[in-house]
């Protein structure tokens, strides 16, 4: 099978998402589709998977025109997509088995009596064949982010799939889970399934993909065999210029302690965590997926209850029973799952970036001053270089990197004392990553304290002054960044003996 997309264009109000874009893939090929945020890669694949019916252009399979104007039509062609934001594609109160076999039962036209024992046996067999160790009877709401991703991939593979699209599939996965995913992909390739990878993790793409296509501004830029190009060349194609120094230089003055956590525990994942953050300082929380970084960030922010330990903020012992109290005291959290927890995707940029400072734009009677609200939003959009035609654009129409800037922007206006960034570059391209790094460095230059939590160990090394390494919910070691390395962080993050 050879699938071709020719002259595909898509326009939204004020935005031309695709401009005569093209893409070709053959059976048994692992094809990377990459580009800066807003390049149009996800939109192009949403066209192919039936999510964008108002496109213009042609789609051909083995030279014959086909129509894909709905998800159903795409699935009839054997095209499946696993989206980056997994929670939007899952039913939280369904079991894993029901989720995996939902599409199969949905195809049946007549009423069907479900034999639950048979369903779970079949689902369990499928999970084992893919190397996924999850009970088929477990509720989706009980799964970790990585487990949800694996279940969605299993559900797609279970259907009659000849082309599988994976949008940022490794973003929530650990190294072990990523290797397991790649094993699954290689098995699919051997069965002549075509696989499209959308990802910003370039080294991984060179490991698994035989072909790499780069897009920019909604257009096709280049297509090369991965063996005939390089990461540097791909980055140049993405940005239109060579990538300069990634991490900004800085020489901020380290001030007094702003936040001190002493033996904090949540009774579940976080165990006896102690750390401190000073003004003008970036501390790293390094660890693999599932190490407890997100849980610790939420514990500090009052989003989960403290079972034991104490917290001192700006010299006062405090207990944050809710994020409201944390924000009021001067704490801000930019969460890992931005679409679920960081932004309101169906609201405008203006509404989002001013949502944390509505009091500044309200009268004594509670009426919003739209003029000052828009002025504030316009400044944030300009300061953060958010790519959008107007402040009224809905956040759901922005690229991942620009959505992340919106999530950050709403907290910049609060002038908090300590900012917590949980996986801030997840699903973000190399250009937007540098913008985010610059924003963080500007914060510490103003005397703010920053907690930078990430499983991207190179970024932790490049961004921080000190690092706390987490393993299985515990801080196993504190390190000075200048005196450590990625190798040591990885060793500690995988349970290595910190005393060796």
Report on this structure:
With 500 residues, this protein is an alpha/beta fold. It folds into two domains: 2-239, P-loop containing nucleotide triphosphate hydrolases (Rossmann fold, 3-Layer(aba) Sandwich), CATH 3.40.50.300; 257-493, P-loop containing nucleotide triphosphate hydrolases (Rossmann fold, 3-Layer(aba) Sandwich). It contains 17 helices and 20 strands. The chain has helices at residues 41-48, 71-76, 96-106, 116-129, 145-158, 175-190, 202-208, 231-239, 293-300, 323-329, 338-342, 349-353, 370-383, 400-412, 430-445, 457-463, 486-493, and strands at residues 2-12, 15-26, 30-35, 56-61, 64-66, 79-82, 163-167, 194-198, 211-216, 219-225, 257-265, 273-278, 282-286, 308-313, 316-318, 331-334, 418-422, 449-454, 466-471, 474-480. The strands form four sheets. The protein has a six-stranded mixed β-sheet with strand order 6-7-8-3-9-10, sandwiched between helices. A six-stranded mixed β-sheet has the order 16-17-18-13-19-20, with helices on both faces. It has a four-stranded antiparallel β-sheet with strand order 2-1-4-5, with helices on one face. α6 (175-190) links the parallel β7 and β8. α3 crosses α4. The longest helix is centred in the middle third of the chain and has 16 residues, at 175-190. The chain is globular.
